[in-house]
Specification:
Distance between the termini: 22 Å
Family: Belongs to the gluconokinase GntK/GntV family.
GO molecular function, one term: gluconokinase activity
Shape: globular
Bound molecules: adenosine-5'-triphosphate, D-gluconic acid
Strand order of the largest sheet: 1-2
Organism: Labedella phragmitis
Protein name: Gluconokinase
Number of strands: 4
Largest sheet: 2 strands, parallel
CATH topology: Rossmann fold
Number of helices: 7
CATH class: Alpha Beta
EC number: 2.7.1.12
Order of helices and strands: HEHHEHEHHEH
Number of domains: 1
Length: about 160
């Protein structure tokens, strides 16, 4: 989880490799209307996001039925969005990729994205609700390199998964 540009796609792919688990990028699951809205510079609202979050939950469910966890890149900005995902997967662990707005804006400015403009970072940050104490999760600071972050996240997982 985390705002646009925080490194979800980068870290999701890397964690998938490191943990030998399938990786699903939520970016790829947005319907065309959502992509066009963001491309035009408008933030999504809750009604745009619910069907997308349901789809993500269904894919996590499908993996659990097959007997495996799935790594998912999904902004999951509000607690209510994470609640919806937890309705599908109560043991979901959220890894919040946290960084300053300056650092993330720099990274967004330096990359090409199919539809997400850097101008939407402000609304992403305004929408973000950090993990609360009762949410199973890990918070990392994205100033570290992807490999260092993967080490930190994997090291933190046993503490999060142990009841
Ligand atoms: N830990 C890191 N250190 C340095 N650069 C990083 C790190 N993580 C990601 N990046 C770079 O920052 C940019 C944004 O990363 P990425 O696209 O993975 O973010 P994202 O959260 O998936 O964004 P979006 O939600 O908009 O798709 C990319 O150019 C990526 O290579
Ligand atoms: O919930 C949202 O506002 C969206 O998921 C965005 O976060 C983008 O999809 C993503 O960050 C860009 O790829």
């Amino acid at each position: 989880m985390g705002v646009s540009g925080s490194g979800k796609s980068t870290m999701g792919a890397l964690l998938g490799e490191r943990l030998d688990l399938p990786f699903i990028d939520g970016d790829d699951l947005h319907p065309d209307e959502n992509r066009e809205k963001m491309r035009a510079g408008h933030p999504l609202d809750d009604d745009d996001r619910w069907p997308w979050l349901h789809r993500i939950g269904e894919l996590i469910d499908a993996g659990l039925v097959e007997g495996h966890a799935t790594i998912v890149a999904c902004s999951a900005l509000r607690k209510s969005y994470r609640d919806l995902i937890r309705r599908h997967a109560p043991e979901a662990i959220f890894v919040h990729l946290r960084g300053s707005s300056e650092l993330i804006a720099d990274r967004m400015g330096a990359r090409d994205h199919e539809y997400m403009p850097a101008t939407l970072l402000g609304s992403q940050l305004a929408t973000l609700e950090p993990l609360e104490d009762d949410e199973r999760g890990v918070v990392v600071d994205v100033t570290a390199s992807p490999d260092e972050l993967a080490d930190q996240i994997i090291a933190a997982l046993p503490a999060v998964t142990t009841p």
